[in-house]
Amino acid sequence: MKFFVDTADTRDIADLAQTGLLDGVTTNPSLIHKSGRKFLEVVKEICSLVEGPVSAEAVALDHATMMKEAAVLRNIADNVCVKVPLTIDGLKTCKALTSDGAMVNVTLCFSANQALLAAKAGATFISPFVGRLDDNGLDGMQLISDIRLIYDNYNFVTEILVASVRHPIHVLESAKIGADVMTAPPAVIRSLFNHVLTDKGIAGFIDDWQKTGQSIL
Ligand code: G3P
Questions:
Q1: Over the stretch 164-210, which tens digit does the pLDDT of each residue have?
Q2: pLDDT band at residue 53 under the 50/70/90 scheme
Q3: In a domain, 56, yes or no
Q4: Which residue of 31, 84, 129, 156 is surrounded by the most CB atoms within 10 Å?
């Protein structure tokens, strides 16, 4: 499963990229707002930090203007992936862009039927928001299972990008279901490293090492 980080904070992106486990980045207008930076400038910097897809969201709601925005975004770098909402105009834009060789991430997916539409429109990625479904008393991970089943039934190549990931169990369940990608905030990715027995083991080894009185350097 590929790991994307869901942030526009370039310090976090640069730090996580050093671990070698970062396959891409996703941003959205809320994350750009949180960064306090200019959209096009921050996307350009992110694209220089990672080789994989960097999702940058079009904000127009009509197809014609979305296409104009997409042209600007695609001009930033080769690894820009244009993000469009799951609407009729969004999917028209998806079809036009992917037919022209661009990467497209169809976002704000909350049903398996919506995911089916995105795959038929040639989406590179579909982004089902599991956390927001859970927040509303629905089962986010069941949606991922349903989309996996449907995509496998018809050999769709659209990659399932699990979004709105809130905790390590979302990551674990995504991997068990066979999602292609998950995108999570930096704190969730860092939490995956944690285990109480790892911490306890390190403390025990360091304690015994100090008792030897030796030094490696
Ligand atoms: O980037 C899309 C998605 O991951 C947003 O997550 O936490 O705002 O629901 P969240």
A1: 999 999 999 999 999 999 999 999 999 999 999 999 999 999 999 99
A2: very high
A3: yes
A4: 84
| pTM score | 0.96
Domain count, the chain: 1
* Domain of residue 112, CATH code: 3.20.20.70
Residue 130 lies in a domain: yes
* Per-residue pLDDT reduced to its tens digit, 16-45: 999 999 999 999 999 999 999 999 999 999
pLDDT, one tens digit per residue, over 74-125 is 999 999 999 999 999 999 999 999 999 999 999 999 999 999 999 999 999 9
98 lines ligand 1 (CB under 6 A): no
Please report which residue ranges of the chain form alpha helices under DSSP H: 10-17, 29-35, 39-49, 63-74, 88-99, 112-120, 130-135, 140-154, 168-177, 186-191, 196-212
Is the beta carbon of 183 within 6 A of some atom in ligand 1? yes
Q: What is the domain range of residue 115?
A: 2-212
- Ligand 1 pocket, mutate which of 138, 164, 165, 183 (most atoms under 8 A from CB): 164
Question: Which positions are annotated as active-site residues?
Answer: 83
Residue 217 lies in a domain: no
